[in-house]
């Protein structure tokens, strides 16, 4: 009898443990905000974070902050070195216990190409679904415009007017690090410190980039059809201008045909998704976000958590 009771107790302890493990049934989510924004702005990413938490109770959401406070974080969206920022993010995410079984990631605007760089360069812990909204994956042919009231943005534009490829600017101005002049690709390849590397456009192709990106469960690329902030808006789908200014879709580019970063492999297995959101840059509403992002890509159960006993 004693043994029997003991077994029952062990059994229930086991069940309780399983139920506890089930509590974090959703993959955690990591957000990387866009230019002019911060990790926690209650008008934008802060609101999105809260909305995800209300929609999927118990989910862990981590919003990336560069630097030690929101002010530094906002500045870091204009000034700094993206390569260093990505390395710091790799370190932070690796050290977060809540993320150790992997996570879903959403990058907003320039945060889209930056979080993709995390996947390609680090991916430890690994990203399950990657969603980018209005990202500039193929670069921008013009620097983004600024609202009159945005002093930091206007400062960025002023600094840039001294030449995006000058030594001083290209290492310190974030937007210069994904600027691509279609009429001057040689200079771009030689001088841009971020985008040619992350898109494997240089002579040396880093195979890890392709391997890591192709390991995603889904890569969802959302383009804003009315976007006038990003030129071309189709950069969200990796389309870009040729020398004559014609827009060349991804599948006609070498990055795809020679599969420099794993996009072809993803597409061939139905994991690369091209989506449109019919609004201007980042002007989607929460209902769109619920129907098109949260429910299809964030609400699946984290299988890895289900049957592992956590110690
Ligand atoms: C390729 O990328 C990986 C991941 O970032 C890095 O560890 C490795 O050093 C790179 N290889 C070369 C030869 O640069
Ligand atoms: C991706 O694959 C689909 C078929 O699954 C194909 O119709 C489409 O053209 C491919 N996209 C690209 C960019 O090649």
Task: Report on this structure.
This is Palmitoyl-protein thioesterase 1. Keywords: Disulfide bond, Glycoprotein, Hydrolase, Signal. It is an enzyme of class 3 (hydrolase). InterPro entries: AB_hydrolase_fold, Palm_thioest. GO terms for molecular function: palmitoyl-(protein) hydrolase activity. This protein is an alpha/beta fold. It has one domain: Rossmann fold, CATH 3.40.50.1820. Helix content is 40%, strand content 12%. The protein has 14 helices and eight strands. It has a six-stranded parallel sheet, sandwiched between helices. A two-stranded antiparallel sheet has the order 6-7. Helix 5 links the parallel strand 3 and strand 4. Helix 4 crosses helix 5 and helix 5 crosses helix 10. The radius of gyration is 21 Å and the shape is globular. The protein starts with a helix and ends in a 5-residue tail after the last helix. The C terminus is likely disordered. The structure holds 2-acetamido-2-deoxy-beta-D-glucopyranose (2 copies). The site of one 2-acetamido-2-deoxy-beta-D-glucopyranose has 3 residues, from loops. The site of one 2-acetamido-2-deoxy-beta-D-glucopyranose has 5 residues, from loops.
């Amino acid at each position: 009898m004693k043994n029997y009771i003991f077994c029952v107790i062990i059994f229930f302890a086991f069940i309780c443990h399983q139920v506890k493990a089930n509590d974090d049934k959703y993959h955690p989510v990591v957000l990387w905000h866009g230019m002019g924004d911060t990790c926690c702005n209650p008008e934008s990413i802060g609101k999105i974070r809260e909305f995800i938490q209300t929609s999927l109770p118990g989910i862990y959401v981590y919003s990336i902050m560069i630097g030690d406070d929101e002010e530094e974080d906002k500045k870091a969206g204009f000034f700094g070195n993206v390569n260093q920022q990505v390395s710091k993010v790799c370190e932070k995410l690796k050290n977060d216990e809540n993320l150790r079984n992997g996570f879903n990631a959403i990058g907003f605007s320039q945060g889209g190409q930056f979080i993709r760089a995390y996947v390609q360069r680090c991916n430890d812990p690994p990203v399950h679904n990657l969603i980018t909204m209005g990202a500039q994956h193929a670069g921008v042919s013009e620097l983004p415009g600024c609202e009159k009231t945005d002093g930091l943005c206007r400062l960025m534009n002023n600094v840039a007017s001294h030449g995006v490829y000058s030594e001083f600017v290209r290492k310190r101005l974030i937007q210069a690090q994904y600027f691509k002049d279609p009429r001057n690709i040689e200079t771009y390849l030689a001088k841009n410190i971020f985008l040619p590397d992350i898109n494997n456009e240089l002579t040396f192709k880093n195979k890890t980039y392709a391997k890591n990106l192709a390991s995603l469960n889904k890569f969802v690329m959302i383009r804003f059809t009315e976007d006038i902030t990003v030129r071309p808006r189709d950069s969200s789908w990796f389309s870009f201008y040729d020398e004559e200014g014609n827009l060349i879709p991804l599948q006609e580019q070498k990055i795809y045909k020679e599969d420099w970063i794993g996009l072809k492999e993803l597409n061939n297995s139905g994991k690369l998704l091209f989506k449109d959101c019919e609004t201007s840059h980042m002007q989607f509403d929460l209902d769109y976000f619920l129907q098109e992002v949260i429910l299809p890509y964030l609400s699946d159960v984290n299988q890895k958590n289900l049957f592992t006993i956590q110690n």
